[in-house]
Amino acid sequence: MQIAGLNNQTVRQHNRRAIMALIWRYKRLSKSQLATHTGLSIPAVSKILDELVSEGKLSHSSENLSSRGMNSGHYQIPNDGPLILCMNVTPTSIESQLIDAQMTPVGDFRHTQVNAPTPEALLTAIEDLWRQQQKNCPGRIINLALGVHGQVDPDTGVSQTMPQAPWKKPVEIKYLLEERLRVSVRVDNDCIMLALAEKWQNGSNRQDFCIVNVDYGIGSSFVINGQIYRGMLNGSGQIGHTIFDRDGIACDCGRYGCLETVASLSALKKQARVWLKSRPTTPDLDPRP
Ligand SMILES: [Zn+2]
Q1: 8 A C-beta contact, residue 89 and residue 149
Q2: DSSP calls for 118-184
Q3: H or E segment at 286?
Q4: 3-class secondary structure for 5-63?
Q5: Between the chain's N and C termini, which has fewer beta carbons within 10 Å?
Q6: Any bridge partners for residue 229, and if so which?
Q7: Distance, CA 264 to ligand 1 centroid (Å)?
Q8: What's the confidence (pLDDT) of residue 109?
Q9: pLDDT band at residue 279 under the 50/70/90 scheme
Q10: pTM over cut 0.85
Q11: Cβ atoms 123, 167 nearer than 8 A
Q12: What is the Å distance from ligand 1's center to 275 Cα?
């Protein structure tokens, strides 16, 4: 019957996704561990694993994870797959780290100062960093994953607003970089990327949590039931422009007294400078010459 066929297919897709999610989270699991976590029978898990291995999505290693009893090795993401260059992008700096297909760091973390008065200059800075890595890894595919400050459409990879930038128009980051570099480019908001890292890299398997990123501005991201909560127009978590003090100081967004004007890293630094200048001079403690 067609309905039963559709149901079977839906269940199979669900089980495949569950197995892939477990491997992403735990990195290496044996067949019996996968059966325990999913609640599926060993024959059912075997069938799905055979499919995933034949499609190149998983690889099997005969190395046993435990010395107890009979064991048939473990399964993992194949580590000869494409590398990923991860970046945290702002118009003044780019932090970058190359990782392999299993999300293990390759080489060193890099912090690069950037001077990007235009979107073109920022794209060129990203491209230069990618080309340097490509030179070090000839013949390997290096995809890009970009965490970008401000509002981002994760489906189209368009940076809609980047409050730190001098430009005010949207930038088609994904499209423009894929055209130039011919690799896959994933773009999302920086706080959402932080939450995804916590979700996939922290093995303690929390289902519900919130990331708060206090930097130039203030952003946050919520994971509910293991899923990113994006909200209307991908606006969830944008708490920095919540008005905190109606008579407060002007914010870059054009309003007054937003949370960012009081508690962001840049606001705190400014308050510290004002305080240092205004306090009574104590000769013994005064750092000024
Ligand atoms: Zn504001």
Answers
A1: yes
A2: SHHHHHHHHHHHHHHHHHHSTT--EEEEEEESSEEETTTTEEEE-TTSS--S-B-HHHHHHHHH-S-
A3: none
A4: HHHHHHHHHHHHHHHHHHHHHHCCECHHHHHHHHCCCHHHHHHHHHHHHHCCCCEEECC
A5: C
A6: 222
A7: 11
A8: 97
A9: confident
A10: no
A11: no
A12: 23
Phi, psi of 269 (to 5 degrees): -65, -40
C-alpha Rg value of the chain to the nearest Å: 24
Yes or no: say if 148 and 126 are a contact pair by the CB < 8 Å rule. Answer: no
For residue range 156-210, list pLDDT tens digits in order. Answer: 999 998 888 999 999 999 999 999 999 999 999 999 999 999 988 876 767 899 9
How much distance in Å is there from the Cα of 273 to the middle of ligand 1? Answer: 21
CA dist list (Å): 85 to 7, 32, 150, 188, 194: 38, 33, 20, 14, 15
Query: Each residue of 94-142: pLDDT tens digit?
Result: 999 999 988 889 999 999 999 999 999 999 999 999 999 999 999 999 9
Q: 289 pLDDT exceeds 60? A: no
* CA 272 / ligand 1 centre spacing (Å): 20
What's residue 184's pLDDT?
A: 97
Cα(47) to ligand 1 centroid in Å equals 54
